[in-house]
Amino acid sequence: MGTKAFVEGMKKGYAWDIAGRSSALPDKGGQIVVHEFDYKAVNEVVYQGNGVTIRSWPAIHLLDGPVTFSLEWNGLKYVFGGDSYPNKWYIKHAVGADIASHEAFLPPKALEIFRLGPETSDVCFDENPHRAASVRQGDVGCQAAPGRWLPFGAIAREQRRHHG
Fold this sequence. Notes:
Blueprint: H1 3-13, H2 15-22, E1 44-49, E2 52-58, E3 67-73, E4 76-80, H3 88-94, E5 99-103, H4 108-111, H5 118-121, H6 133-144, E6 148-152, H7 154-163
Parallel strand pairs: 4-5, 5-6
Antiparallel strand pairs: 1-2, 2-3, 3-4
Helix pairs in contact: 3-6
């Protein structure tokens, strides 16, 4: 498991397509270089070059391994939470970001079936079932207080469809 294993499997799956393109297009643009890093490290630099710094910290999902990223460039900071549950690390390291985004997520009652650890309970939820998931996600955004907050995801769209 891991990114390197995923990319190797992807290359095998696309071998026929890659072989067909390599005679007609430059090969360099299709090269994939994997740089694995410790997904458990908190706010560690995983890339630095050309004025760009990328950091990561753990994200909570179904299995171990997902991370959240921050990208710092030219005095700006963007935090991408991706498909994960809100947690203490996201709030701590998104503080002061110019832009932060995170997927809107299920309400607390729906999350109970996953039996998540204490990191998830560090976030305060609004139990009002008539508020959209993106508003609950906004609680995380309010705690991190980025310059711009961008919740996204299918759950937020579904909630808006049913609750206006």
